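hi! just following up on the protien thing from before. the input was this:
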Amino acid sequence: MADGPNPVLLSFVKHLPEESVVKKLVKSGAPFREISEQASLEWKQIAPVVSSDAPPTPDLVRMGYEAWYKDADAEDRTRMLGWLNMLGEMALDLAEEEEEELAEEDG
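and the predicted 3d structure came back as:
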């Protein structure tokens, strides 16, 4: 388990809104798998509305994207998808690496 925030993941979340749930998880040093799953959830909420003029969905509001969404255009939203994807993949890689190390220690 992480002893604190991972510096690589911190570099990814600097592009996310301060209120983003996944950003808060990274800053708190949450488990990597949890971070990966949350990044995926946030990606899935933004992807369908990349080109939308509709107000933010309740899920986006709940996940901390309300203010960002209102000011973001399609290019900003597409860029956010990239950051969330990279964050999720990196956190998943770290989780799997950590799990393999734990299995080796137990085995």
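The CA atoms of residues 43 and 85 lie 7 Å apart.
DSSP finds six helices and no strands in the chain.
cheers
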